[in-house]
Prior knowledge:
This protein is an alpha+beta fold. The chain has 6 helices and 16 strands.
Amino acid sequence: MKILSYLNRILLALIIGITFIIQPLNSEAKAASTLRELRAELSKLQAQKKSNENEKKSSQTEIKNKTAAIDNAYSEIKVAENKIELAIQKIAESEKEIETITAETNELMRFMQITSGENAYMEYISNAGSMTEMIMRLSAVDQITDYNKEQLNKLDNLIKENEQLKIDMANYQKQLNSNITAYENRISKLDARLAELDELADSIDDQIKNQKSLIDYYVSLGCKEDQDLQQCVSVANNAGWLKPLKKGTVTSLWGYRKDPISGVTKFHNGIDLAGNSEGTPVYAAAAGTVAGITKKSSCGGNKVYVHVYVKGVAYTTYYFHLLTINVKVGDKVSTDTVIGTVGGGKQTKSYDKCSTGAHLHFGVAKGFYLGGGKEGYSSYSTMVSKSISPPGFGGKGWKFTSRTQFYNS
Ligand SMILES: [Zn+2]
């Protein structure tokens, strides 16, 4: 009892722990109280696992894309650098050309002044031999200065353009650098999230495993889908053993004996209790869950198997040669439940060939025959090999007149 409640407490703590990890912000989250709720939690965990896996994949894709974007930004920065360099070159070239043209113009003006004094320019024009020549000269000087003016303007604009290009490219580089920083920050965040997801995956895998074994455990106890698990477990606990009959006489003990029918020495996997007529109620020796029923077996007739816990230890109890069976698989039985009635006499003789008169064959084996979970096994021969002498009975011929509880250590 103590061991079981301790185990149960660990398991419940686990459920609460799971719920807490999954929904730390949801204060209304409560521990599952039925198998159906446990299964719903399991589905949630599995869904969580899947969504984490998806998130992991999309994070990895995003990291890849961002890394490529960073590479791209770096080469864009190089391109901008080259453009800036080119702009600087062009500015320098333009400035040089401006200098040349300015010098050229100045020289032209100076030449005119040097050759003919202050009015050389005017003289150069007015000394023309004809009106036509004068107009030609006038226009030549204008053309040279206009041309230079135009060239200077063009160059000035080119410098302005390149200055703007320099500024634009510098801003572009700034933008690219800030993009790189943003991408790097995003990548480091994603890396951290990936590490978190990996850790979470481990913990979810553990939780799924625990949840599954928890479900198996309650299933092995025979808990119904919507039954309160606390109640399911508590009913399955027993402090000791009761006799399955109100009175009786031990006619055959557990262990090797000469078979009353074949005369061959065989292992007898239970105790035979006679002294009751067919139809006498048979009770569960300990509270538990009906794990199996066999009808009209040629050796043993109608059989009922009940899983019980006594002092925290799992047992399969079995009742053979029954005339009637009053329970069905999955039923929860108490020590007051009439699971069936005594047979083995005239009324069951037609099919049960392993009985010589009305009696109950009562057996106890360790573990859960026909059951799941860690206590469970399915082979009948294993059950027989794990059978024990049913506790609380005297030797052959020993009589009892009450179901008095027997507390084994
Ligand atoms: Zn027997």
